[in-house]
Amino acid sequence: MNWIRRNSPTREELLESRFIKPFAHRVAHSHLWRFTRTSVRRGTALGLFVGIFFLIPGVQILGVALLALPFRANIPIGAAMTFLSNPLTTPLILAASVWLGNTLFGLHTHVADLYILYDEGASLGEWWNWVSANVGPALLGGLAGLFVISVVSAIVGYVLASVIWDNWIRLRWRRKIRRARDQRHEASTSDTAAG
């Protein structure tokens, strides 16, 4: 939680953004900043979806802040989840999305053709044919793969956030019960010693 608080934008920082200002009165609403079971789960899922699907760093946090409104998701958690797509993980995410999209749609871009066209001094028409036949469908396949990875990550994040939240609450209740039992035990032993 401390890492999330340190790396997530504060309410004031987010509200100062020129993109958020038109919606500032809605984004500032307290239910979007509270840590409740449902808002944390939704914030986790939303942050993972936006963080993976929109791989542009500034757009991710703003996207989470704006999409948190209709989904009633926790903004700090959502903003923190966008950091899972970073310069180290982005190449892996892109490679997996291209592979998945190509596998799902049976598309394959042959990079060797690019070199052949370049070496042979291909005409503009030949370049256009190559782009429309290979690159365009491969990009669409990559985008579809990215969407699938984003949705699956959001679902997994939602489930994991539920499990972690439930275990955290269970652990807190056990600690409270143990403390109350210890206090009762101390009170009973002090009454016995005094009596």
Mind explaining what this structure looks like?
The chain has 195 residues and is an all-alpha fold. It is 77% helix and 0% strand. It has helices at 2-7, 11-15, 24-27, 37-53, 57-71, 75-81, 90-105, 111-119, 124-194. Helix 4 (37-53) packs antiparallel against helix 9. The mean pLDDT is 81.
Element-level helix/strand string: HHHHHHHHH
Poorly predicted ranges (pLDDT <50, ≥5 residues)? Answer: none
Strand content: under 5%
- How many beta-strand elements? 0
Q: SS-based structural class?
A: mainly alpha
Overall mean confidence score, pLDDT: 81
Shape: elongated
**What is the first-to-last residue Cα distance?**
47 Å
Q: Give a quick account of the main beta sheet: strands, pairing sense, barrel closure.
A: none
Rg (C-alpha, Å)? 25 Å
Measured as a percent range, the helix fraction is over 70%
Q: Provide a count of the helices.
A: 9
What would the keywords be for this entry?
mainly alpha, 195 residues, single chain
